[in-house]
Automatic annotation (TrEMBL), chain A:
Escort protein required for cholesterol as well as lipid homeostasis. Regulates export of the SCAP-SREBP complex from the endoplasmic reticulum to the Golgi upon low cholesterol, thereby regulating the processing of sterol regulatory element-binding proteins (SREBPs) SREBF1/SREBP1 and SREBF2/SREBP2. At high sterol concentrations, formation of a ternary complex with INSIG (INSIG1 or INSIG2) leads to mask the ER export signal in SCAP, promoting retention of the complex in the endoplasmic reticulum. InterPro entries: Beta-prop_SCAP (IPR057042), HMGCR/SNAP/NPC1-like_SSD (IPR053958), Quinoprotein_ADH-like_sf (IPR011047), SCAP (IPR030225), SCAP_N (IPR057041), SSD (IPR000731), WD40/YVTN_repeat-like_dom_sf (IPR015943), WD40_repeat_CS (IPR019775). Residues 889-904, 919-932 have a biased composition (Low complexity). Belongs to the WD repeat SCAP family. GO terms for biological process: cholesterol metabolic process; regulation of cholesterol biosynthetic process; SREBP signaling pathway. The chain crosses the membrane at residues 20-45, 277-298, 310-336, 348-372, 393-411, 696-718. Residues 849-862 have a biased composition (Polar residues). It comes from the Eukaryota. Residues 281-439 form the SSD domain. This is Sterol regulatory element-binding protein cleavage-activating protein. It is a multi-pass membrane protein.
UniProtKB/TrEMBL annotation, chain B:
GO terms for biological process: cellular response to insulin stimulus; cholesterol biosynthetic process; SREBP signaling pathway; SREBP-SCAP complex retention in endoplasmic reticulum. The chain crosses the membrane at residues 36-57, 77-96, 139-156, 163-182, 194-214. This is Insulin-induced gene protein. GO terms for molecular function: lipid binding. Belongs to the INSIG family. It is found in: Endoplasmic reticulum membrane. It comes from the Eukaryota. The keyword Membrane applies. It is a multi-pass membrane protein. Mediates feedback control of cholesterol synthesis. GO terms for cellular component: SREBP-SCAP-Insig complex.
Length: 1250, 233
């Protein structure tokens, strides 16, 4: 076993167990999945809606002038929103204050009390700053943005936000900008916290607004180890005055010089805000999604045999949508905001990839054997597809990894999204979709069980039951579930083309491969068109490797990496960015100062004494760390919208304030020293301060691994090793064991075993049924009558029946009557030897066959006079007469021991030998000479109505035989015709015979009942049909030729159909004729075909369809004789034609089954069948089509053209083609199968369709 | 025996003759009319919806400019655009199956809803591309869209009369648009082909194919209702 195979087996086993797990604990798993989806989507709350992210544009400060409203000719790189003055200019004064040197006598509150106190002095300074030159005196009051009332809904913020004056925001607003209030505040922290909203807060909070830096960077907390407090004073200016601002900047710098500050001050950032909620922008995107989901729905709709397609479609949608949300959420969590481009591309990727796996999974699970337990089915389905799923997953991840290592930022971002999306999609498919599928299939099974129970309750006993009664037929036989068909290793499935396409797609995963290839090409293009990224990366590599490398160049690499790579407050990297480093670089120990704090050691004394104020690149544009909505929310408090407008953010003014411990102690509030907060352990404090993203990630990974281990342990503890696999070592079957089609998908194994009716010696020629009885005639001329419910052979009428003896046969024991007649034994054993020889693999039905004739139903008991008729001698004579022509090819069974020696034999003989026998005796006596002529003729057409069989023979004779429960006898015969009867129709009491020479004979069957009362036999299950009259054996039946239309057609009549009082004939002379049944009057001659007519359909609703040798199908209006539509559908003859209320189904010699829309004549779809399989058709219900094939019958869903099930008729079936197929009323199907008849009960699975 | 008809006795014949012709002709006719009405209504609403959505795309990108007072009205487009598109799509959607049945040769390529949905999605995608993707020049854009439209036809229609009808209607619609722009009902921001954008015919063509596809599918679903429609040729 190679490694690959081992891996494959392991993966398969893993998926198998996973499937078992999912199917065993659906509810916990769905809860777990939902929880993880929600957790992953939580970071999305912080994300603005797509399209609302602000756009930036940077200009220099030096040559700044307010942009004009009118667009210039040469806009250059200016965005089109950069027109006109901004809403406001934002000037931030970034204050970093620290008490230095730090004294051990200080309490933690001192870290921020006195630095915060400095804000009031600075505010004073800013407010009072005046710049005067030749053009006048300017103060802040004249330049700033004057605000009026707060937005009405924000009354509670009145105390902290300025009103009616300059918009000047600082932490001093907490204390109404009054030093006295600040000094008298016993607990600063509480004041700050007071205004924070409770619970979750995602957008800009008041604290962020006032401090101007994110809360965690402000340093206002008890555990601030850096002991540096950062805050900003934000001045919002209405107009820009460079000189005023410069003088303010100079003044503040002069007051509070920042020694090592090297912030650039020459860039001004204009931020353009889009509309708050871009619903208008979302609509097309949402529409695309809706269409795509509809596509998903219509695709999943094709998957049959699930309980609720809606549920599965919803699950598929949820899977795809959640995986998208999860990927975006996770990426946001790790600091990656999706650009619009990625957001537009990604859905398509996920949808296509997700849909394919979902389809494959569903199909795989559905095609597992139906009789298995649900969880086993799920597990099997999963494990069947595991290898391909994993392989594709691995391939995709590999490609994405390759893309990731190109180190081009755009590609990296995309790859990150793709990886997360793929993984989350896979996760959801494995957990969510599989579980939903298992629930669905379980529900289906339950529904199935409910439907099945009543049927099984009424299962007839296998014991001998009373004789079949015609009046009360036994209930429809339930399909024997215990018998499973022996399935050969390989079988050809006939699938519709569309399904093949789906299978093909699913098998080759074409779309996935195309997308993979597309991704590779796309990455390639990006790499090709963006050589800068590669070049920079190469340069960085070279500089790192070469000893002479300039360390400044290596500073480029952080640019290439993702933003969070920047270590917070790392001065070396910050300084290295600038080409000209500060002349007095920071001593190395200072940068060590807060790096070493990560260790679990007591703080070094050095950092104790000197808390350093450092300025790094991140301070340059500190507002970037704020929320997207910081500025919009600040302005919205004053009812100023920033939508579609922009603000200009001026370079910050850095202010460093160093306070001596003395000052800090002086500003102390008496409360501060009283209750100092309890010191928390240093380790956790250190951890809290210095946890970087990577550490979080590592912890998360560890937690994940731990969780997986825990779950695994739980799984091992909770779940038994084998989920009720019933002792079998492997409940699942390997793929090879199942009958597969070319595409590797196994069809559901049929649980239907067809009932084979054997007895005919040659191929079956004619088949007729009226729902209760079934008559068949083989090429040898033997007619057998079967019970359509149970499949028992009731009567055998041998070929030479015209002599008057219609042989009767009772199951298998018919021969035990005259064991002494050894000579005739072979003949009479005609049925049983073959049965004994061939029926080895079939359930023995002999016990079912009733032999107890003593308990005959009253109808038979009441048959008057029971003559003591020597039936045996009659039969004997008949046999002696006709011994020579009887086929003698049957092997003589050794004994008749299988027949029960019934004590009731004499009585039975009496009861069966009734009037029918008498009449046949009369005829038989005079028909000896006739026999030789009859021998030449074979039965060409046969019809069965009531208990009369009409048989048309090739010699032109029409025979009407009577059948009742125990007797077959010829009742009348008409020998007028000379030309062979090609077709018969038997409707009410009329028989229409079509002959080879084109003539049409109408016969009337007359019954003279001695009792003068017609008994009506109830026609079960057929409300629309008038009950057929019941002919009893004592009736005298005569068959009279009422009318003969000599030249109905010029050429042989090929088809004859009768319904709704009309007789329709089709002939080889290209015409169809419609006759009225009552008076044999020709109503229409329908011309339109250019070939002989081969198929005709007419039903109660007067729909007439005809098909011809030209491949055309015509629909006619029977009332007017006009042609409704005319379509060409087949190459070659149309062999069969059936209509439902909505469509017409035709099959042709080209082995194509076409389904046409009945009203429009448009072909809906067609099904290609195997060679020579297309001839037989039957419609069971509006949506269920059955076709005969090579040794099998197939059930199709007419609405979609899906193959529902294929029932194989036998084992050695490959050469036999089902040519004739009859649909009985009890939804059973009779079809010929070589010399056998097959009775197939429609599988219960199919009932689920409705 | 060579003439022995072997497949004759296939169908179980239903006995009895009682039932006469079913239903008066009027019911068929009204059925057909309501059927047409329903189809037309559905197609109209689909057309209106698509017009609104796709117009939004164009307006967002400032491809089309409507008079300023109209912009404030519903859905940022002129009131007459969606009804026009809806009517056009209804006409097209009814025309296609009608022509199919006139020719007598039914359209038999990919008749299923998922394919139709795919077609609609591709159509929206083409519109997306025309509005959102920045191409180097207009010729490139138009060529790309033309290729996409032809691809759409090849993927979802593949019938010659569909192509002919699509081209004809697209040309007609382009002409109408030109007239509209000429009479200053609206205008394009950067016309490059006789007052309009050169990709407009491609969009129209794709739209015709899409609506035809929907119409055919609807005709399939609705047409196969209860009765065989009695039509005299």
């Amino acid at each position: 076993m190679t490694l690959r195979e081992q891996l494959r087996a392991k993966i398969s086993a893993a998926f198998y167990h996973h499937g078992l797990l999912c199917a065993s604990y659906p509810v916990p798993i769905i809860l777990f999945t939902s929880a993880s989806i929600l957790t992953c989507c939580y970071p999305l709350l912080k994300l603005p809606l797509p399209g609302t992210g602000p756009v930036e544009f940077t200009t220099g400060v030096r040559d700044y002038s307010v942009p004009s409203h009118e667009p210039h000719g040469d806009q250059g790189e200016r965005p089109d929103w950069y027109r006109g003055p901004p809403v406001a200019y934002i000037q931030q004064v970034l204050v970093k204050a620290a008490v230095s040197p730090w004294d051990s006598s200080l309490v933690p509150v001192d870290v921020f009390r006195s630095p915060l106190g400095q804000v009031f002095r600075l505010l004073e300074e800013i407010r009072n700053h005046v710049y005067s030159d030749s053009s006048g005196v300017r103060s802040l009051e004249s330049l700033c943005l004057q605000v009026t009332d707060l937005f009405p809904g924000l009354r509670r913020m009145q105390t902290v936000l300025p009103e009616h004056g300059c918009l000047l925001v600082s932490p001093g607003n907490y204390w109404q900008n009054q030093r006295e209030l600040f000094d008298s505040d016993p607990d600063l922290f509480k004041t700050i916290q007071k205004h924070e909203p409770k619970g979750l807060h995602t957008s800009a909070t008041l604290r962020d607004l006032l401090f101007g830096v994110p809360g965690k960077y402000s340093g206002v907390s008890h555990y601030n180890k850096k002991r540096v407090v950062t805050y900003t004073i934000t001045v919002v200016l209405l107009s820009y005055d460079a000189r005023f601002l410069n003088s303010l900047r100079a003044r503040l710098k002069q007051l509070h010089p920042s020694a090592n500050c090297s912030l650039r001050e020459d860039h001004m950032v204009h931020v353009h805000f889009k509309e708050e909620i871009g619903i208008a922008e979302l609509i097309p995107l949402v529409t695309t999604y809706i269409i795509l989901f509809a596509y998903i729905y219509f695709s999943t709709r094709k998957i049959d045999m699930v309980r609720s397609k809606w549920g599965l479609a919803l699950a598929a949608v949820v899977t795809v949508l959640s995986s998208l949300l999860m990927s975006v959420g996770l990426c946001t969590l790790f600091g990656l905001t999706p650009t619009l481009n990625g957001g537009e591309i990604f859905p398509y990727l996920v949808v296509v990839i997700g849909l394919e796996n979902v389809l494959v999974l569903t199909k795989s699970v559905v095609s597992t054997p139906v009789d298995l337990e649900v969880k086993l089915r799920i597990a099997q389905g999963l494990s069947n597809e595991s290898w391909s799923i994993m392989k594709n997953m691995a391939t995709e991840l590999c490609i994405i990894l390759i893309g990731y290592f190109t180190l081009v930022p755009a590609i990296q971002e995309f790859c990150l999204f793709a990886v997360v999306g793929l993984v989350s999609d896979f996760f959801l498919q494995m957990f969510f979709f599989t579980t939903v599928l298992s629930i669905d299939i379980r529900r289906m099974e339950l529904a199935d069980l409910n439907r099945r129970l009543p049927a099984e309750a009424s299962l007839p006993q296998p014991k001998p039951v009373p004789l079949r009664t015609r009046e009360a037929p036994p209930p429809p036989r339930p399909s024997p579930h215990t018998i499973t068909l022996q399935t050969p290793a390989f079988r050809n499935l006939r699938l519709p083309k569309r399904l093949r396409v789906v299978y093909f797609l699913a098998r080759t995963r074409l779309a996935q491969r195309i997308i993979m290839a597309g991704t590779v090409i796309w990455i390639g293009i990006l790499v090709y068109t963006d050589p800068a990224g590669i070049r920079a990366y190469l340069a960085a590599q070279v500089s790192e490797q070469s000893p002479l490398g300039d360390p400044g160049v290596s500073g480029l690499s952080p640019h290439l990496a993702v933003a969070p790579v920047f270590a917070a407050g790392d001065p070396t990297s910050a300084l290295n960015i600038h080409p000209a480093p500060d002349p007095t670089p920071v001593p190395e120990n200072q940068s060590q100062g807060h790096h070493s704090s990560g260790r679990a050691l007591p703080l070094p004394p050095l950092s104790h004494s000197v808390p350093q104020i450092t300025w790094g690149a991140e301070d340059e544009e500190g507002w970037r760390r704020l929320s997207f909505r910081h500025w919009p929310s600040l302005f919205s408090y004053y009812n100023i919208t920033l939508a579609k407008r922009y603000i200009s953010i001026l370079p910050v003014i850095p202010v460093s304030v160093h306070l001596s411990p003395q000052e800090a102690i002086e500003t102390r509030h008496p409360h501060d020293t009283r209750h100092r907060p309890p010191l928390i352990p240093k380790v956790s404090a250190d951890l809290q301060t210095d946890l970087t993203l990577y550490k979080v990630a590592a912890l998360g990974l560890a937690a994940g691994v731990l969780l997986v281990l825990l779950l695994f342990c739980l799984y091992r503890v909770l779940c038994p090793r084998n989920y009720g696999q019933n002792g079998a070592a492997h409940g699942r079957r390997r793929r090879g064991d199942l009958p597969c089609d070319d595409y590797g998908y196994s069809p559901p194994v049929s649980e239907i075993s067809p009932l084979l009716l054997r007895g005919h010696s040659m191929d079956i020629e004619c088949l007729a049924s009226d729902g209760m009885l079934l008559a068949s005639c083989c090429l040898a001329g033997q007619i057998r009558v079967w019970d359509a419910q149970t499949g028992d052979c009731l009567t055998v009428i041998p070929k030479h029946s015209s002599s008057g003896c219609w042989e009767q046969r009772e199951g298998l024991d018919g021969l035990s009557r005259e064991p002494e007649e050894e000579d005739y034994f072979p003949l009479r054993r005609r049925a049983s030897p073959s049965r004994l020889a061939l029926f080895t693999d079939q359930p023995d039905l002999t016990p079912l066959i009733d032999t107890n004739f003593t308990s005959q139903p009253p109808s038979h008991l009441s048959t008057p006079p029971k003559e003591g008729f020597d039936y045996g001698s009659l039969v004997e004579r008949a046999y002696t007469e006709h011994e020579p022509p009887s086929p003698s090819s049957y092997p003589c069974a050794s004994s008749a021991s299988s027949s029960p020696s019934s004590a009731a034999q004499p009585q039975r003989r009496l009861s069966v030998g009734d009037g029918g026998g008498a009449s046949s005796q009369e005829r038989g006596s005079g028909s000896g000479s006739q026999a030789a002529a009859d021998w030449e003729s074979s039965v060409w057409a046969m019809e069965l109505r009531g208990n009369l069989i009409a048989a048309g023979r090739s010699s032109g004779k029409l025979e009407v035989g009577l059948w009742d429960a125990v007797e077959g006898s010829l009742r009348c015969r008409n020998e007028d015709g000379v030309s062979g009867i090609t077709a018969l129709a038997f409707l009410n009491n009329r028989i229409v015979a079509a002959r080879l020479n084109g003539s049409l004979d109408f016969f009337t069957v007359e019954i003279n009942k001695p009792l003068a009362l017609l008994q009506y036999r109830g026609a079960p299950g057929q409300g629309s049909m008038p009950p057929s009259p019941c002919y009893t054996s004592e009736d005298v039946i005569s068959c009279q030729l009422t009318r003969s239309v000599q030249c109905a057609h010029q050429k042989p009549i090929t088809v004859l159909r009768a319904a709704a009082g009309r007789v329709v004939t089709g002939s080889q002379d290209h015409t169809v004729r419609v006759y009225r049944l009552e008076d044999s009057c020709c109503l229409f001659t329908l011309q339109g075909h250019s070939g002989g007519i081969t198929a005709i359909y007419i039903d109660q609703t007067m729909v007439l369809a005809s098909g011809g040798q030209d491949g055309a199908i015509c629909l006619w209006d029977v009332l007017t004789g006009s042609r409704v539509s005319h379509v060409y559908g087949h190459r070659g003859d149309v062999t069969s034609l059936v209509c439902t209320t909505s469509c017409v189904i035709s099959s042709g010699l080209d082995d194509l089954i076409c389904i046409w829309d009945r009203s429009t004549g448009i072909k809906l779809y067609s099904i290609q069948q195997d060679m020579g399989c297309g001839a037989s058709l039957g419609v069971i219900s509006e949506s269920l089509l059955v076709t005969g094939g090579q040794g099998c019958v197939s059930f199709w869903d007419l609405n979609f053209g899906d193959l529902l099930q294929t029932v194989y008729l036998g084992q050695s079936s490959d050469s036999q083609v089902v040519r004739q197929l009859l649909v009985l009323d009890n939804a059973a199907i009779v079809c010929d199968f070589g010399s056998e008849l097959s009775l197939v009960y429609v599988p219960s699975v199919l009932e689920k369709l409705d | 025996m060579s003439l022995t008809p072997k497949f004759l006795t296939l169908t179980a014949m239903s006995g009895g003759a009682g039932a006469g012709p079913r239903g008066p002709y009027m019911s068929f006719i009204t059925d057909r009319n309501t059927n047409l009405l329903i189809r037309g209504g559905l197609l109209f609403s689909v057309g209106v919806f698509l017009a609104l959505v796709l117009n939004l795309l164009q307006v967002q990108r400032n491809v089309t400019l409507f008079p300023p007072d109209v912009i404030s009205s519903i859905f940022s487009s002129a009131w007459w655009v969606p009804p026009c598109c809806g009517t056009a799509s209804a006409v097209i959607g009814l025309l296609y199956p009608c022509i199919d049945s006139r020719v007598g040769e039914p359209h038999r390529f990919k008749r299923e809803w998922s394919s139709v949905m795919r077609c609609v999605a591709v159509f929206v995608g083409i519109n997306h591309a025309s509005a959102k993707v920045d191409f180097a020049n207009n010729v490139q854009l138009s060529l790309t869209l033309a290729a996409l439209s032809i691809g759409l036809w090849w993927t979802f229609d593949r019938s010659r009369r569909g192509f002919a009808l699509g081209v004809a209607i697209a040309l007609l619609a382009t002409l109408t648009t030109q007239l509209l722009v000429y009479n200053e009902f609206f205008q394009y921001t950067s016309p490059d082909f006789l007052y309009i954008r050169s990709w407009l015919p491609c969009i129209f063509f794709a739209g015709v194919i899409t609506m035809g596809n929907i119409g055919r599918q609807l005709a399939l679903v609705r047409g196969g209702s209860e009765h065989l429609l009695m039509r005299s040729e």
